[in-house]
Design a protein that fits this description.
Blueprint lengths: L1 H26 L7 H25 L5 H15 L7 H9 L3 H12 L8 H24 L22 H32 L2 H31 L5 H41 L5 H12 L5 E6 L4 E3 L5 E2 L9 E8 L2 E9 L6 H10 L1 H63 L4 H29 L2 H6 L1 H11 L4 E5 L7 H22 L4 E8 L2 E8 L12 H11 L3 E5 L6 E8 L1
Length: 584
C-alpha cells in the first residue's frame, strides 16, 4: 500500500503542475476571452477529475475506473493548449481537444468495475479514440481559423496543407456524422444497461451514469446542429450545458461514495436497533434486505457437523460460484467461526464495506438462527431417514416374499410331490421309492440352505452364535477379492452395534466386488473414545458416489439411527475408504 500511496502522490503532484501550466497558458493568451473565468473553470474541471480519480484509485487499486477518471482530467488539461499563442502548442491542443471526450466515454462504459469485456464495445472505443484525433487533424490540415469558429487573432495551424473549403466541408461532415453514430450507440448501450440493472446496481450507477448520459445527449445535439447549420448555431448554449454536465460527473461520483457512507452508517444503526427485537428468519432476511437495498438477498447457514449449507428451513442450499455474473456472497463469522453467508446482488461488491458492516452487525442473530436451521435440518433429515427406513423395510419384505415364493416354496412344493410319488411306490417299486426319497433328501437340503441364506440377510446366525469376529471372517472368506481382516475389539459390542458393523462391512465388500476393480481390501473394527470405529478400504479405482444407489443410504440411515456417522472418501484413482463411527 505504501508503494501505491507513493505512486498516487506523484500523480497528484503531476496534476498540480499540469494545472498550473494550463493556468499560465490561459492567463497569458492573447486570443481567449474572459481569461480569468476560463482559467478558473479549466482548473476546476481538470483538478476535479484528477482528485476524484485518485481517490477512486486509492480506494480500489484493482479497479481501473479511478485510472480512467484521472486520465480524463489530464486529457482535459491537454485540450487547454488551444489557448496557447504558440502555433505548435495551439496545433497540439486542437489535435487533442476531443481526446478527453473519448476517455470520458471509455470511463462511462467501464463504470463501475473499470472493465470492458465486450469485443464490440472495444471496437467502438477504438474508432472513437481514432476519431477524436482524426477529426481535429482534418481541421488543422485544411481549415483556417475562421472555419474553426475562431477569430483572426488565433494562431495558424502548424500542419496546414492549405485551405480547401470543399474538402474541409466533406471531411468535416463525414467525421461529424460518424461521431453522432458513435455517441448514439454509446447512449443506447448505457440506457440498455440502466434498464437491465437491478435496484442495487442502479443505486450505484446513478450519480455517474446519468450525468454522463446527459452530456452525451448534449454532445449529440451539438454535433448534429453544427453539421446542419454550422459551428455558430446554438454552439454556445450546448457548449455551456455540455461543460456543466461534464463538470458534475466527478462530483456525482464523490456524492455517490459519501451517500454510500451515510447509508452504511444509517443502515447498520437501524439494523442493530431492530435486531434487538430478536426477529425470526423471515424478519432477519427482511432487515438485511432493507439494510443493503437488495430484495433478492438470501441468508444461508453453515452446519459444521455435516459441512454443508442450508437455508432457514433446513433445506440444502448452495453458494453462487465466484464467476456468477449476477450473484455473490459474503461470509458471516462469529469469533473466527463460520456461521453463515449473505447471498446478494453482485453490484453490492462495489460497496463491500457496507456488506461487511452489515454481516458483522447481524453475526449474532445469524448465529442464533443457524442453530434453529441446524435443528430444522436434523428434523428434516430424521424425517427422510425414517421414510427411507420404512421404504427399505417394505422393499425387504417384498424381496423375502419373492425369494420364498420363487425359491424355498417351490422346492418344498416339488418335495411334497416327490414324497407323494415315493409313497405310492413303496409297495410296488421299493427301489424306485428309495431313489425318490434320496432325491427328496437332496432337495430338502437345498431348501434349507436357501432358507439359511435368507435368514443371513435378515440377521446372520453366525453373528448371534459366534460373534462379530467370526461373522466378519465368514464375509471375508466368501469375498472373491482378498480381504485382510485387521482385527476386532476384544470386548463384545452391544448387539445392535455389532449388527450395524456387520452390515456396513457386508455392503462395503459387495461394492468392492461390483464396482471397485480392486486387488485387495482391508477391514478393521476398533473401539476408541466410546465409539466403535469400522473402516473398509480398497485399492480400486475410487470415484464412488454416496448418492448413487440405495445401499449406502440404507447404511447411513441404519448408522444414524444409532446416533453414529458414516463417511465416504473415494478420490478418483486412489481407492475408497468407508468409515463408520457408532456410539457404544
Amino acid at each position: 500500500m505504501s508503494g501505491l500511496r507513493r505512486a498516487l502522490g506523484l500523480v497528484a503532484i503531476e496534476g498540480i503542475v499540469v494545472g498550473i501550466v494550463a493556468l499560465a497558458i490561459v492567463l497569458s493568451s492573447d486570443h481567449v476571452g474572459n481569461r480569468g473565468v476560463t482559467a478558473t473553470l479549466a482548473l476546476f474541471i481538470g483538478w476535479s477529475f484528477i482528485g476524484a480519480g485518485l481517490f477512486a484509485w486509492w480506494r480500489r487499486p484493482d479497479n481501473r475506473f479511478g485510472v480512467l477518471m484521472t486520465a480524463v482530467g489530464f486529457a482535459f488539461f491537454l485540450s487547454v493548449l488551444t489557448a496557447s499563442d504558440s502555433s505548435l502548442l495551439y496545433t497540439l491542443g486542437v489535435l487533442f481537444s476531443s481526446l478527453y471526450v473519448a476517455v470520458f466515454v471509455h470511463m462511462l462504459l467501464a463504470y463501475p468495475d473499470g472493465r470492458i469485456d465486450s469485443p464490440q464495445l472495444r471496437k467502438v472505443l477504438a474508432v472513437g479514440y481514432s476519431l477524436s484525433i482524426v477529426g481535429p487533424g482534418i481541421m488543422m490540415l485544411f481549415a483556417d481559423p475562421s472555419q474553426l469558429g475562431g477569430g483572426d487573432d488565433e494562431p495558424e495551424s502548424a500542419i496546414r496543407l492549405g485551405t480547401d473549403p470543399v474538402v474541409f466541408d466533406i471531411l468535416d461532415a463525414a467525421t461529424s456524422a460518424l461521431a453522432v453514430v458513435i455517441v448514439g450507440y454509446v447512449l443506447y448501450v448505457l440506457v440498455r444497461r440502466w434498464q437491465a440493472a437491478r435496484q442495487p446496481q442502479r443505486r450505484a450507477m446513478a450519480p455517474v451514469l446519468w450525468s454522463g448520459i446527459c452530456l452525451l445527449v448534449v454532445l449529440a445535439g451539438q454535433l448534429t446542429t453544427e453539421a446542419v447549420n454550422g459551428p455558430d448555431s446554438l454552439s454556445g448554449v450546448t457548449g455551456v450545458l455540455g461543460l456543466l454536465f461534464f463538470a458534475l460527473t466527478p462530483f456525482g461520483f464523490v456524492f455517490g461514495l459519501l451517500r454510500s457512507r451515510v447509508v452504511q452508517a444509517g443502515a447498520v444503526s437501524e439494523l442493530l436497533h431492530k435486531l434487538g427485537d430478536a426477529p425470526d428468519s423471515t424478519g432477519l432476511r427482511d432487515l438485511l434486505s432493507r439494510a443493503l437495498g437488495d430484495r433478492s438477498l438470501q441468508v444461508v447457514y453453515w452446519l459444521e457437523d455435516s459441512s454443508r449449507w442450508v437455508d432457514s428451513a433446513g433445506q440444502p442450499a448452495e453458494l453462487p460460484p465466484d464467476d456468477d455474473p449476477a450473484r455473490a456472497w459474503a461470509p458471516v463469522e462469529r469469533e473466527g467461526r463460520r456461521v453463515g453467508a449473505i447471498i446478494h446482488d453482485r453490484s453490492l461488491c462495489e460497496d463491500d464495506e457496507l456488506v461487511r458492516s452489515v454481516a458483522v452487525a447481524a453475526g449474532l442473530s445469524i448465529e442464533n438462527e443457524r442453530l434453529q436451521a441446524q435443528l430444522r435440518a436434523r428434523v428434516e433429515e430424521l424425517r427422510r431417514s425414517r421414510a427411507r427406513i420404512v421404504e427399505a423395510g417394505t422393499a425387504e419384505r417384498r424381496r423375502l416374499e419373492r425369494n420364498l415364493h420363487d425359491g424355498a416354496q417351490q422346492r418344498l412344493v416339488a418335495l411334497s410331490l416327490t414324497m407323494r410319488l415315493a409313497q405310492g411306490r413303496l409297495r410296488k417299486d421299493p427301489e424306485g421309492a428309495e431313489g425318490l426319497l434320496a432325491g427328496a433328501q437332496d432337495e430338502l437340503g437345498r431348501a434349507l440352505e436357501e432358507l439359511r441364506e435368507l435368514a443371513r440377510g435378515i440377521h446372520p446366525a453366525v453373528l448371534s452364535d459366534r460373534g462379530l469376529k467370526a461373522a466378519l471372517e465368514a464375509l471375508a472368506g466368501r469375498s472373491p477379492v482378498p480381504v485382510d481382516l485387521d482385527g476386532t475389539p476384544p470386548d463384545q459390542l452391544p448387539p445392535s452395534v455389532e449388527a450395524a458393523a456387520y452390515f456396513v462391512v457386508a455392503e462395503a465388500l459387495t461394492n468392492v466386488v461390483k464396482y471397485a476393480h480392486a486387488s485387495q481390501a482391508r477391514v478393521s473394527v476398533s473401539r476408541s473414545n466410546g465409539h466403535a470405529i469400522v473402516e473398509i478400504a480398497d485399492d480400486g479405482v475410487g470415484g464412488a458416489d454416496p448418492n448413487r444407489g440405495s445401499g449406502l443410504r440404507g447404511l447411513a440411515d441404519r448408522i444414524s439411527a444409532l446416533d453414529g456417522t458414516l463417511e465416504l472418501s473415494s478420490p478418483e484413482g486412489a481407492g475408497t475408504l468407508l468409515r463408520a463411527e457408532i456410539p457404544v
